[in-house]
Model the fold of this input.
Amino acid sequence: MNTSVRLTIPAKAEYLHIVRLTLFGIATKAGFSFEQIEDMKVAVAEACNNAVLYAYNEGQSGNLEIHFELEDDGVSIHIKDEGHSFDYEHNANKTASMHNKSLSEATVGGLGIFMMHALMDKVQVRTNNGTEVILTKLFGRKEEMA
Done:
């Protein structure tokens, strides 16, 4: 059942609805539940928003490459920009330290990474020549763990 869909959109907030609509169509056809799709939409929106806000300098134009890979065990969504890379390890470590704290103790930055990890089964970040976030949701995984 391997299927691949690619989008290239301008790195502007007004184009992100195209990504959410495409994700909804692919995930629905694949058989994900409404709750799983909503989780994926939040995680993908967060990754896309980070790229829109931080990848390119003010006034600099850029694109987002979105690649959906539907496989036998689930779906992987790649969100890639060619802008400024960020220090993923630093932000991930900051996020890990939040596990026993309340939301009021959260600092700006890193909360999006925390949400992506909470909502998806696997999160990978590559930070060479821009940033690529790979979000994976497996069929039935979260329900089995609950």
User: Anything to note?
Assistant: The chain is about 40% helix and 25% strand. Helices lie at 16-30, 34-54, 88-96, 111-119, 141-145.
